[in-house]
Amino acid sequence: MVSLQELQLKALQNPRETILQLLGALIAVQTASWIITVIYRVTFHPLAKFPGPFLCRISYIYQIYYEAWLNGRMLERLPELHRKYGSVVRINPNEVHLVDPNLYHVIYRQNTLFLKDPYAYKLGAPNSLSMSLDPVKHKRRKELLNPCFSKRRVHLLQHIMYEEMQKVFEKLSAAAESEQAVPIQDAYYCYTGDIISRYLFGKSLKLIEQANFAKETVDQLRSFTSGIWVSIHISLIRVLIMAMPRSMATIFASGWMKIVWFCESLAGESIKEHGSHGTLEKDIGQETIFDRMLNGNVTKGTHRAVGFQDLADEGASLLVAGTETTATTMAYATYYMLLYPEKRQKLLEEIATVERDADGRLSLQKLDMLPYLNGVIKETLRYTNGVPGRLTRVVPRGGLFIPELNDHVPEGCVVGISHNAIHFNPDIFENPYEFRPERWLGDKGKGLDHWFLAFSKGSRDCIGKTLAIAEVQIMIANLFTTFDLELLPGHAEDMEILDRVIVHSRRNLKVRMKSRKIENGAVGDN
Fold first, then answer.
1. Rounded to an integer, what distance in angstroms lies between the CA atom of residue 128 and that of residue 518?
2. Is the CA virtual torsion 375, 381, 383, 389 positive or negative?
3. Label partner for 42 (CA 20 to 30 A): which of 262, 271, 281, 419?
């Protein structure tokens, strides 16, 4: 038997051979570990009974390839997987994707026990409503912020929406006179960004005053989503960047990190100003969102005022959601109205029946009553859902019963249903790949509201949906009665729908446009 001393002596005499032996041993151990893991995942894992591609069953490589390497193509792959494997498909070792519409309202409902999957929510801003994993903290924050997004409060903001719309229209008119391509989607970013910034912290970002419809800032906002899948799957990159000195980190930081840092500076300024004046509302004439957070929920007496990081995280989350997703919805609504002129004409005829206020405006109260306008908006959101992919959830104790299979998805596993799986289900939406605002009209349209998932459902639905709809109503109703617009060559490629967690067009929409005039309620050319 070889003694330890003899082994040490041999290692010193022949270090190269010893290193190779150690490497071989490590490789053997790692290989054995991997083989055991594969056998477990294929045979003994709680999800082993559910079908899916072999690579999905044994590793995350398949998902990472389609989401990170191909930048969001997993959503396009899912229908093909379901055609091959059925209604329940295992898409990674611990997750199945579902398409049964009825299960959506089991998983994503009020007071749900299906909590957010931590793996999918690692983008930062953990203290924000959208990224919060703790259901108790989420409920408290939502109760605190809900009054800011009530229909009454949103209608009180319509003067701000019109102020910002008018600034955008003045710039659009000047651009239209040049007969050049107008970056209208960038203009929408200016509109939504300046509105949400005023409501957030009482100061406009003044995007509309920047050159070229704030192209540089808009590109930075869009860059938030460009590498989002890499950030989710390789979170170490974000951790390393955050550990760097800020001066160095800005070189490598994503658009999202820069937005969080920007909101940190705003949070500091807001806390200081609120401490001095007791309010930030001077720019809008009512309580801002930051005011609400800094004051706490005084009426209920149950919520303390929040701190610096809460303001920064919530500010970043609401700034992106309130700017990019709403602007993208406006862009696609514009695109579809130009793509289908007969539908645009129906919209114009409906708007022409509305009596304008003394100041010439179309009030939100009246726009809410226009079925075709709201059908256009709903159909746009169905077709280009703000979050088209999976909102993953962890199965609670007791599992998730799958009626079709008479079986359960075990607790602790992850499930998800993509919004596209519902919005393009032909059993719910007839001819789902046709853009048909008419489907939302009448009693039949009201019946479809149960399956309208543009803002999700349940406890974790989008808090800003009322504000977003109001902004789109005002912009779209006034845009087509103020300007003639025309699509440019190559628009189909530009407006390809991409999944960057939130919906994204390949390029921002550009159009040619000229002004119109309104005479006695009728729309005519200048």
1. 44
2. negative
3. 419
